[in-house]
Amino acid sequence: MWSKRQEVDYALQRRNTLRTLQGPQRAFARAAACDADPPLVRAALHHGEPHPVDCPVCGRSQMVVLNHVFGEQLGQYSGRIKSSEELDAMQNEYGAFKVCVVEVCHACGWNHMIKSYLLGDGVERKTAPSAENG
Question: 34-61 burial, b if ≥16 CB within 10 A, otherwise e?
Answer without folding.
Answer: bebeeebbebbeeebeebeeebbbbeee
